[in-house]
Specification:
Elements lengths: L5 H4 L15 H6 E3 L19 E8 L3 H11 L5 E5 L7 H4 L3 E2 L7 H8 L1 H24 L7 E8 L6 H13 L5 E4 H8 L5 E10 L2 H14 L3 E4 L2 E6 L4 E5 L4 E9 L14 E11 L13 E4 L5 E5 L5 E8 L4 H6 L1 H15 L7 E12 L5 E5 L2 E8 L5 H16 L20
Parallel strand pairs: 2-3, 2-11, 3-8, 5-13, 11-18
Antiparallel strand pairs: 1-16, 4-7, 5-7, 6-7, 9-10, 10-11, 12-15, 12-16, 13-14, 14-15, 17-18
Helix pairs in contact: 3-9, 3-12, 5-6, 6-12
Length: 430
Amino acid sequence: MREDFLAGAATAGAPDVAHSLETHDDVRLLRSGTPPWAIDRFPLPHEPLSEDCRVDVVVVGAGITGSLVAEAVTATGASVMVIDRALPGRGSTAASTAMLQWEIDTSLVELAGLYGYERAARIYRRSHEAASDLGRLAAALRIDCGFVPRATLYVGGDDVGYDALAEEHALRERAGLPGALLDAATLEERFGIRRPAALVSPGSAEADPVRLSLGVLRTALERGARLVEDDVVAYDSTAGAVHLALASGRHVEAGHVVLATGYAMPSFVPSDLHKVVSSWCIATAPQREEDLWPGRCLIWEASEPYLYVRTTGDGRIIAGGEDARTADAAERERLMAEKIERIVKKLRTLWPHGHGRVSHAWSAEFGETTDGLPLIGAVPGQPRLLAAYGYGGNGITYSYMASRMLAAEIAGERREWFDDFALDRDGPKG
């Protein structure tokens, strides 16, 4: 079946396409439209805070990062409170395409140019380890989230041809990372994709991000964590504790506070490396199995702006990209139709098979850094306040990495390599 994907682009505004705008102001700041994940009210025990209290750790934000941090910290026996002003996992987490890659937005060649080969290779190996460990965690916790191991296909595009990918492959091999270099003929023979070259690498995965996030959070709650619907309006960090004032009028004292609020960090968490951009995504209606590419690998095209593609368990194609700076949610929403059309055209060029009926369209704001690495660690000058953000295209992989790093920090088990991701690290500006 070879139906023009552009035929589906015209349906993006049709009544049967799920792209209605969110009316909840807090959610609308983060995302617009409707992703294909089941964003409903999963039964998680939550409560208003009835009295002032003290806990070992407060996690602000109940998305995927907050959920993973709560799970990691409760595993140590510490008391944990998770505070969120909205429903858990319904903000930026729900907008994720959940392509759980170990490959970083910044190529190993580029990262080595910024920080030297040894440091760059170490960072890549950490990311590979995080992706693997995340899969083991999902299996150990028996989370029903459609978690499926996938290979990644990094295909050439624009100015990235065979020679550039060969250089990247050589550095990855030197670092002990898995993968193979495919020339144009081999790429077309194995995957039916026409590009100058590609790197195919095992070790990544896909999942339903909402179900993954809520499954992890449910585990933390079963271990004794508390989920509170409220908003933190003030932080006061002293030598011995952090004092939080909540919108409800209640106060909480904590030994440590983890800020897992995505790109919307409090003003006292500055970084010259961070910026906020918007991204747009589509999902098709389910495809026939024979109209999908072999192995259903995660596809990442080296174009500007880039394109990323995956499938879902029920055979949909998810595609996204077209990242751009936007001033606010209204501008992001105004660009929706134009961005969807561009994504559909690029998807048709990459994979001109199957049908093009677009069933879901959405957009979201997210944070990225100039070096492609996350910002994880203590707020400078405030060791009891910890933050994790700036994930770029590696959101959930970095969320897992952050949860383990911050749990170790809280337990007093800091490692030297944590400096690679510090909020105040020296890095490229811009």
